Every structure is written in C-alpha cells, then in structure tokens.
Amino acid sequence: MTRRSEYPLPGAGGDRPDRPSADPNGGDAPSSSRAGGGAPPRPEEQARAICLRLLTGSPRTRKQLADALAKRDIPAEVAEEVLSRFEDVGLIDDSAFAGAWVESRHHGRGLARRALARELRTKGVDAAVIDEAVGRLDSEQEEHTARELVDRKLRATRGLDREKRLRRLAGMLARKGYPEGLALRVVRRALEEEGEEPELLEHWLPDA
C-alpha cells in the first residue's frame, strides 16, 4: 500500500481536494453582497454557503456538515435538501472520506483498525461504510506497521528495566488500537531480535 501524507485536518496544510467554487445548483456561490440589499439570505442560500465554506477548508462527512447547519439554526428540512444535493453532485462522499482517512491515518500515525473505526464513528460515518474502509487494511499490513512503530521506539527505551520497557512498548501499541495479542507478539519478537533471552521474556510476555 502506498504511503500518503497525513490526512488534512481542518486548518492544516497539505494537499487538499479541489475547492468547490460554484453552487451545486449551478449558480455562483452566494456572496455577502446578495444580502446587502436589506433582505436576509434565504435559508437555502445560507446552508449552501456554510457547506461550501467548510468543504473549502477540508473534506467533511455529511454528519459533520449537518451538525454545523443545525448550530446555525438552519431548518432541518432545508439542511436535508441541501446536503442531499451536495451528495448528488459529489461534494459529500462519506465512503471516499472514510477510505482516505483510513489510509492516511494508518500510514501517517500508525493507527490500527480499531482506532480508525473509533475515529470515523465520532465523525458520523455509517457503520457499513466504516467496515468497508477499515477492511482494506489486512492483518499482515497491521502487524507490519506495529513492528515499524516498535522498532522506532526501541532505542528510546534502552536503559530502562525490562518490565518498564515492555509496558511502554506494549502500551504505545495499545493506545494506537492494536489488539493485545498482536502487540505482545510484536514486542516479544523485537526484543528477542535485539538480544533479550526468550526465557527471561517468558515471564512478562507469554507466547501470544
């Protein structure tokens, strides 16, 4: 799997998708001048402007945009209509969002499938879409990434007593969502290759 840069978060730099510059309904995006004549913009115009502004900053899920519209007191039926229109023209695509999120956060931060699924749930992505996205990471890739994380951390733990070192390495993997069995297996293998006696590790890291 090809490595990519960290998935762009709101306000962060890096590659971003093409910025939507036009109204999904075919016209130009509403400008402040349209409301300058005295009459406030219609709720539909407000909703489109809010969504376009947020999508210009970074990709968003439908749920994230819906929450933003609700905070601005956009009527629910108006929000639903505008969001559906954005989906129809491809400006909202939760499946693409989830796939890009999984790939970038796995390669950029080393997060495991469990942690990635948790993040996507907080962004309102549907469970079936999450399962499909995280399913693209197989167990072999996940274990390979876990070993890379441990290898990078090994040098920093040298000099610590054995128990503290084991806890630190396994805890680092656990915080990134790796299952306990996989974490212990990877840590044990790394320490054995570094020269630790397998018999001494047996007490702290039984075969997983």
What is this entry, summarized?
The chain has 208 residues and is an all-alpha fold. The protein has ten helices and no strands.
Separation of the first and last Cα atoms: 27 Å
Which parts are unreliable, with pLDDT below 50 for 5 consecutive residues or more? 1-22, 27-35
Q: Work out the helix count.
A: 10
Q: Can you give the helix content as a percent range?
A: 55-70%
Radius of gyration: 23 Å
SSE order: HHHHHHHHHH
The averaged pLDDT comes out at 82
Categorize the overall geometry.
elongated
Q: Count all strands and give the number.
A: 0
What characterizes the major β-sheet? none
% residues in beta strands: under 5%
- Alpha-beta content class: mainly alpha
Walk me through what this model shows.
The protein is mostly helical and about 210 residues long. Among the domains are: about 95-135; about 140-200. The chain is built from 10 helices and no strands. α2 (about 60-70) packs antiparallel against α3 (about 75-90), α4 crosses α5 and α7 (about 140-155) crosses α8. The radius of gyration is 23 Å and the shape is elongated. It starts with about 40 loop residues before the first helix and ends in a 6-residue tail after the last helix.
